[in-house]
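Why this split exists: single-chain examples teach little about how molecules sit against one another. For that reason, every record in the complexes split bundles all components of an assembly together and asks for one structure covering all of them. Below is a record exactly as it appears in the raw files.
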Amino acid sequence: MAPAVLIIVVLRLWPLLLGVNFSFTGDGERNGAMVGLDNYRDLLDDPLFRTALRNVGLLVLLLPIAVAIPGLLATFIYLRVPGHRLFRSVYFFPAVLSPVIVGAIFNLLLAFDGPLNELLGGVGIGPVDWLGDPKVAIFAVVGVQIWATFGMALVVFLAGFATLDPALLDASRVDGASLAQTIWHVIIPGLNRTIQFVFVTTMIGMLTSMFGLLYIMTGGGPEGSTYLPEFYIWVQQGQMNRPALASAASTALFLIMLIVGLLQIGLLRRAGRED
Amino acid sequence: MKQRARWSAVLIVGLALAGCGSASDSGDKPSGGATGKLVVWDWKSGDATAKSYIEKAKADFAKKHSGVTVEFVAQPFEQYYTLLGAAIQAGKGPDVMLFNGGGQIRDRVDALLPLDQYVGEDKQRLAGWDAFTKDSKIYAAPVTLQGHPIYYNRSLYRKAGLDPEQPATTWDTFVADCQAITKATKAKCFAQGNKEGIGIQFFLSGLGSGILTTQEYDDWIAGKRNWNSPNVKRVFSLWKEVNDKGLNSDGANSTAMFNDAFAVFQSSKASHVIGLMSDIGHWKDFAEFLEADNVGVMKAPVVTPGTTPSLPYDGGIGYAVAKWTKDPTVAADLVRSLTSTDALKAFYADAGAIASDTTIDVSSAGPAVAAIVSDLKEGKPALHVALSSKTIELMGRLSQQLLSGSITVDKAVEQLAKSDQAG
């Protein structure tokens, strides 16, 4: 027991505490000096960090869509739509691509003079500056993130379906339930735990693994509209040479993730009790 | 029970210690440059075009210090300052490191050794020292010169019935020429890329000498920037006006300067681009696509009557010495080898860089290089290089807002003034 605790303390808790402690020190001329909560005040005063936090809120709002898409597609595959085997592999395929490749592909597709705008032009809709319009860019990046990652959630859903009692589906069919009724009354209650799991893991994925896509697709722009905390940390640490401020932002992100994690534990516990 | 108590004590003492003092290590610790070895970090030595440059520099250094091994570690440029920042923070970085001139090195001089006493002999031969100087101390020796010439496509000028030997010298005639070219060839006036907010830096420095008076220009470089001056505001209103009038290539805020905007110019979809003198997006790159004779270089058109346009340039990249290196004299000698004439000659020939060594003969490189080199004598430091990294970053974001119309010029300038005065 004791060595295990030591490993956890030295390799996990200790660096974490150093990071938190570092966030209370200064940058530049005040390097190393304790500055109390100054970095946290700077963070709250920084419109970029506030945008990053607002975008976290936006991600939470978009989360149901990110979960519903793989859920629905997994339902169709489970109900054996024609070609379901092909769909399974096609949907999963982007999950094996690096975000850099995905970002580069969509940079080409979404370019101002790119094929999507040409297509839109063909049907008489004016070009959209997908990655250059601050009102549109964040939705474009989140859309690509969902496209690139829903394959993994789909696999989790399919695994969940394996635990679903087929007798319930047969019963609903015999009772003449429509597809929508089957999904609402049989599949959703039956996959309750899987849905909760996908909700939490998708949220964590969006908060911690969108860096590559952001870096390639928008670089945080335009006008800082696509900043997320992770990207903000990188910019402050590497580009602005403000590692202590970056540590404060990391601590803030850690707290956000902690809340999400606690939510996860709460959800799973409650689901366990229902069983 | 006793053992549990002991472990608890270790845990508590450990956690308590973590909360004491600073996690930042600001002390000077020795590092990689121990006995007989110097470690160099850069983002150039991995390029094929820099191979002979590095070889020549190594050979020159070996003549002076045959017992010292030199290890070049080429880092990816987009990660370079992140990695370097972490190394500096730990006080365990390389002995010699490459920097861009301006804010990137000035923000980090605390970790660097002043080189004044080592580079005295090179001061006349090399140009571009100012970009690596802070508080009158030199922190790196310039390898290349970096600046922002306005390149134009002579072939498009000819197609529009204009004389490529006589590019416009005033803003109004410049716009008229652009309109004639667009009418004849459909090419836009400027290839513009502002996805990373870099376009405005090129615009400010490329056109600034035709907008600010000589006094305003010199004051700006000296740090006495009057953001309320109508001419300073004119830079930003012109930036917006150019886009509003459709002179820029489409989708500037979603077009990367590197290399999408340059590709627009190279493919003759725009007649002008404010490019670079060295690295990427410069005369040699353009000459490969447009042919050397079709690449022209012009000075900024006069926007404010009475101004004297000049070539904006500074030291581009330069090697610096970490203050924790074990033997500063040896490390400084390596920097001197990296800026020796033979090495820089190879860098110019293979990579197309305008080297800091002004004694190198460039007469066979075509009209663009001839124009750039002949303008060096009257050239002045680039306006954006004088700004801090923080103000540059803010300017990038504000420039995007100006293009999308979500901020006024007055508000943008007000924010820039505040950031600039905060330092």
